[in-house]
Amino acid sequence: MLQSCLLTLFLCFLSLTLTSKTSAAAGIVSEQRAFIEQFASSRFSIPSETSPLIDNPGRYPQPLNFLFQNVFAWTPTGEAPEFSDACSREKWQEHMMDPRLANSLQLQGALVEKYFKDCRKELETGSQNTLINALQIMSLSYEPQTHPFLRRVIINLPGNIKLKGLLALKGDLKRRPMVVVRLGIFSNVEDFRPERGWLMMLFEQSPFNVLVVENMTSNDFITNNTQFSFGGYDEGIQNIHIAKLLTSPDEPLSKLVQSVHMFGISLGGHGVLFSSLLNKFNSSAKDNLINSFTALCPVVNLEPTMRNITENGWRSALVDVWSQQRLSGLDEKVPSLKQYEMFHFMSKTVSEIARTYKGGLSYVSTIKLPPGMKDRGDFWALNDFWSYYQDVKQPVVIYATQQDSVVPFNLNSEKIRDGAMKITSKNLHVIDFPQGFHCTLPIPYDWSALTTMFQSYILSHSPGFQLEEKTFEVDLSDEEWKGFFDQGTHVKFKVQEPSTKDKFVTIAFTVKNSKNAEKSMRLSLPLSGFDFQFRNAELSQSEKDMIVRWVNQNLKTRMTVKAGKPVLVASWKIAQ
């Protein structure tokens, strides 16, 4: 707790310094990014690089960004350690993908819990310091705004609501699962930081397309809309609208959507949980509107969580200073916020939104609410939707850390886990982790294992989506390798970052036999055989990093014997 408070103090101190004044970089749209433009519509519009919708106040302060980008910055490679056979990612993924488990979320959840319990020594990285975990998750080196495979979009919803998103497409015309990622409190698609790792895992290392969507508490939402609110009721309705658009034959983007999956983080998880309830009332008799839901360290009970944030002594005062920075300009939309008592900005904001609330900002009659629930002006009642939460049809997994002073475990996910909320649904499961702080799981746990876990869950709930295996074989029967191979021979590899003009990636293999003798070799694999279509003449640094992460997650190697000859087999899977 002390480390968490020191971190909050550190962030708030820096927030008092000069606010970042970034401007959108103008330039020629690359062929890769132009590919995304063909899927624009009146509902999914693509703003120009100089659009006023892009550059708004409320960003991270310059000194803070300098620390994250230069002092603490690090680039995840996705490289996996050598797991024992019992803890092999491939073995556990195969179990997760068993069709018999896909029909039982409780069995799937129990399997994940068993994996992280039985293989704890191999899956935990040893990073248990709260301050270090928070700094590392905030300092992932990534440039989403200039990434060739990503493009800003404006999602236009009823009520004249504009949501900013970041659309990530593989560059081909294959129909894939589309994962909608709802960001956490204050997060916008211009400078979101703690959520970057999930975008890398779900888009760069998995066979999915991804749509990242801002939180309603982001300053971009405040600036670009005339109305303001927050919480799961409004964001849950938005999520249903987004899913309807993604699956509508009238939308060009729907041609790339095989199924829709929701992934919510922190406050964004509250809306994902509500949309999991709305899903059964807004799906057709033939097809599910949304196939699966993932809530990461989510707000479950909004009112007590907000009280914990705003009524927690000096820690709340620090949060209050940070909130003023991140909600800059809100007083123009809510004039009563122009005056407030010292260190009571956040508490007054919450109370004023609740007091003036008139109902869902994007609620329309075509969105079906649970029987007995009506859109009205009772903010807290609508955001406490759990009394309606019965017999949810599609799987909902909650991942939470036991240590969490931001979204306290005992006020939120623990109440579902322990049955205190008396929810009747076999398709809701809580998995809690002893290590980590709030949404920092990729730091105390192995990156590749987490990626495999999320990937397997979504794939197992994407019926009809198929992967095909690509293989590359090398005959090692020549004189140099004679007498080297035995039953204990195994292979390791290291990915070499490609150069700017490369159309391939080089893999350095190390082959080791039971006598600990080693031999090495290199192979060059064509980028055209991977799960992306590279359209630009040159690779950017973002693409180079993406290639390394993808190969580390997806390349599998083994030694076999064919016609009496030793053969090195490299394989990977891509979308059909």
Keywords:
single chain, 576 residues, alpha/beta, three-stranded antiparallel sheet, disordered N terminus
Task: State the gist of this model.
This protein is an alpha/beta fold. Helices cover 34% and strands 19% of the residues.
Can you give a write-up of this model?
The chain is an alpha/beta fold and 576 residues long. The chain is built from 20 helices and 15 strands. The protein has helices at residues 2-15, 31-37, 62-71, 89-96, 99-102, 105-118, 120-123, 130-138, 196-204, 219-224, 232-246, 267-282, 302-310, 313-326, 330-333, 345-356, 379-383, 413-417, 447-460, 541-554, and strands at 44-45, 150-157, 161-168, 176-182, 209-213, 257-265, 292-296, 396-401, 428-433, 467-475, 490-496, 504-512, 518-526, 556-562, 565-575. It is globular and about 80 Å long. The chain starts with a helix and ends with a strand. The model is unreliable at 1-27 (pLDDT under 50).
Number of helices: 20
Taking the alpha carbons of the first and last residues, their distance comes to 48 Å
Average pLDDT over all residues: 91
Estimate the helix proportion, in percent: 25-40%
How many beta-strand runs?
Answer: 15
**Side-by-side strand order of the widest sheet:** 1-2-3-5-4-6-7-8-9
Q: Could you say which structural class the secondary elements and strand pairing correspond to?
A: alpha/beta
Radius of gyration: 24 Å
Low-confidence stretches: 1-27
Outline type: globular
Q: What proportion of the residues form beta strands (DSSP E)?
A: 15-25%
Biggest sheet architecture? 9 strands, mixed
